[in-house]
Amino acid sequence: MIRIVAAKEFTLLRRDPRVRLTAAILVIMLLVALVSAVARYQDVSQERAAAQEIINEQWNNQGEKNPHAAAHYGIYAIRPVTPLSFFETGVTAYSGVSIWLEAHRRNLPGGRPADDDTAAGRASELTGAYTLQVLLPLFIVLLAFQAFAGEREQGTLRQLLGTGVPAHALLLGKALGISAAVGLVIGPVLLLALVALLLTPGGLAEFPQALLMMLSYVAYGAIFLFLSLAISARMSSSQSALVALLAFWAVSSFVLPRFTSDLSSWLYPLPTSVQFERAIAEDLETGIDGVSAAERINERREQTLKLYKVEREADLPINFQGLIFSLQEELDAQVFGKHFNRLFNLMASQQSLYGIVSLASPRMAVELASMEWAGTSVSSQRDFADHAEVFRRDFIEVLNQDLTFNSTAGSTDYRSGPELWNKVGPYEYPGTDLGTVLSRSAPFMLVLVLWLVGSALSAWLAVRNLKVSV
Amino acid sequence: MLRRVSSLWVLGLMLVVLTILAAVSGSIRMTTLATTIAERADAELAVRNSLISSLERYTEAGAQGDVPVAAKPGSMGFSVTSAYAAMPAAPLAPLAIGVGDLLPYYYRLDAHAAYTLVQGGEIENPLNLRVGGFDVAFVMVFLLPIIVIALTYDIMSREKELGVLALIGAQGVRLSTFIAAKVIARGALIALMIVGSNAMAIAAAVYMGAEWHFGAAALWVAIAVLYGLAWFALAVLINALGFSSSTNGVVLANIWLVFVIVIPAIVKLAATTLYPAPSRVALTTELREAATEADERAAEAREAYMFDHPEMVEGDVDQEIFFRQVALSEQDIAASIAPQLEAFEAQAERQAALMKWLKFSSPALLANDAFAALAGADRAYHAAFRAAVLEYHQRWQAFFLEPLMREQLLTAEDWANLPAFDYQPPRRYLPNSAINLPLVVLLVLGVALVAAGLAKYRRYSHI
Predict the structure, then answer these.
(1) Is the pLDDT of residue A87 over 90?
(2) CA–CA separation, B375 vs B89, rounded Å?
């Protein structure tokens, strides 16, 4: 019985010329997105890798220098790209790609790609993920809005119900018929995308994420399918079903995200860059716990003199300046940690607002999950910033220790060379591990599951109470 | 009929509420920006003035003892003082964010070379940047067509499906009269809705502090009305083809999709693929190379270690020597990376030139650009501001570098001549091709759609 209903639905859809238009748009967009993603990945990944290599070489070949001068010279951490980040670009265009790691300062990532692109149009982006998030539901709505309401209008619903087909068979049959049509249109493109991923260097490592991402889009499509069937079963005319579904699609996919963007800035305002820098400067001056750096240094001086049992700094067997640098880095790191974490936590709060609103918008849920899978979320950008900061602290400490233990007070002509530089780096960013990605995407997947269960249930209830006329 | 009327009310009210909400949100945003920068500029001025008065006291007391810092051009220019140059907001700024959340709305400048002025915009959550803000331009470009379509997709097909047309014919009313009356009445209502919601949005923005400018406001409303009516004319035309109401809905939804989503996405991809921005990362490494070379040249005259630690160099004169060398090194670096920086500008110009033509592929792009230009939220408005900032930076830098290089000290009288930033953005809207061309094209498009509709309705049948 299910098969007959499904086959009839599929045949009807196949013959509907209106469906072909949307199908063509969907497939063309997916293909263009795929081709441009493959091409851009090659370019950008090579560009980033080459730049990191040059930076590492520049570091190793900086010649003989005082270690502290080298610490000021610093290293740039460059965020590498992964293949999936071109399927779901997430926030990459709007986040900095490199961080300058230097002594005494923690810098925010700089060089946002979007700053250099004159092309307007923030909202639409030709990526696979965007196409699936926005066009797939529209396609499904256009396929499904007539499923029951259309039969009602044409009077065939009476005959259909007269055959005594059970509600679940009717629902599943319709759902399967429409799914077959959807699968026929986008299935080949998605398979192609998976093959392209496997053929891309570094693609295999992201295969689990890619599969999970596909799964979330399947769930996403199913949500819109069941919603459409539920509405179609309840509405008196296919026309009002269409209007209701399109309204839901437009509001939940376009209005709510932008609204949340504004709301999040009201509820959790971020500091301006001026406020941020000033707050750090104030804390650096007064000390995070009210004890100034100068006091701490004096304290450390007394301890060190006592330890080496000497009266004057000049008599120390080590370079006390190196110790001061280390101590300063330690104190500064606390201040940087406090303010950077506060900033990142505010962004995380803003993102959790998106999570809450996604209870009313399946698009937002699938988008947030998808950005986690692709490593293009705000949290993944924070991972990069935090990873680079750990690297910064470590390499500055290596340099400071060299200064402390291999030179003596006042020896400003002390020089280190390549052996020391080679102890540091090269900088390599490993990305976020799968476990973390899984746990981060879990809430959004849960929202998708809730939507799926809710929409399937409402469709089942609607079909069970199907009336010949409403 | 009752259902029709109520949906008109609901959708009209929705448009008004969303538009006003967007205007209020934009106004709050503008106020925050303005107060932030004003606070900072005031604090900066207070510090500078107190340093200058200590210089005055020192001079009055006969210039005895340590030279105050306000007399030293190097220290003042490079480390102690800086200027804030803020972008003056256009009258309609709260209505469209455009690139306003992406590009810096102020620059903090000092005596360092101009290439250090590459700072990005404000600290922002990249997620919010990606999603974009909820502004009036978004409501108009994106949502208004949906509302217009929802009000019009069955304007004639419904009458036909309900058999009203046949009844009308039977009553001896000419079909063309009925159609004309219905279309004009619905069109007038929609136009009224657009004028009303935008007028209220502008009123809200002005009430919340935006500047009132009649020309800008009138052009904004005109573009919104023309854009909305073009969608209305399209929907009326689709109705003339004689499909069922739900087919009309599907066709119009697809057209909306193509012009509002697909074409802008393809245009963006085309512009960035044909003229990709040069690599910022590569620029970083080149800048570093140039800096190293400049440092090496400078280090011959000075210890590199001292270079990194001006605080470790004893005495007053040394500080100024140090800053003199910084200035020279930066001139050196600026000269060697000028070609790379120009490459960025040139590519951005090529992208912009291409976009200028490509935007004619979609009325949504046209309207969006016109709104951004009216609100001073497009790249051109920012580019003019940035050019003014760079010019100001030259004057500001010269104020410090000239005495520094001549090894002179600054006097209290010199400070009276500190350059000020007095940039007035252009206020000529109609000569701006980002505004007048969309206006004309939308008008022509609307007229063409109406003409096509008239031709089609001539052969429209009752059943």
Answers:
(1) yes
(2) 8
